[in-house]
Specification:
The protein has no helices and six strands. The chain is mainly beta and about 80 residues long. The protein has one domain. Strands 1-2-3-4 form a four-stranded antiparallel β-sheet, with no helix packed on it. It starts with 10 loop residues before the first strand and ends with a strand.
């Protein structure tokens, strides 16, 4: 069931699947934007260097900037950013 995730402002894109969600914070394609993720993390879906689930958004280890597209396939254990 969808739920409010506190602590995020400036979200311009959301990609959601059954187990985890990804948000683009900032304008698409801007050099200062960031990607945040939360949810199930048993396969490292959140890309934060752990396999610990998180109900609050985490920042992936890889510094992603200039992102304009995000995706989290339904039933997939991965996310994509371009």
């Amino acid at each position: 069931m969808p739920a409010f995730v506190g602590g995020l402002t400036g979200v311009t894109r959301i990609a959601a699947c059954g187990d985890h969600n990804v948000a683009l914070v900032g304008e698409p394609g801007a050099s200062g934007n960031t990607v945040r993720a939360c949810g199930y993390n048993a396969s490292g879906q959140l890309s934060n260097g752990t396999t610990t689930d998180s109900t609050t958004p985490v920042t992936p280890l890889t510094a992603l900037t200039g992102i304009d597209k995000i995706a989290a396939p339904v039933g997939g254990d991965f996310s994509m950013a371009n």
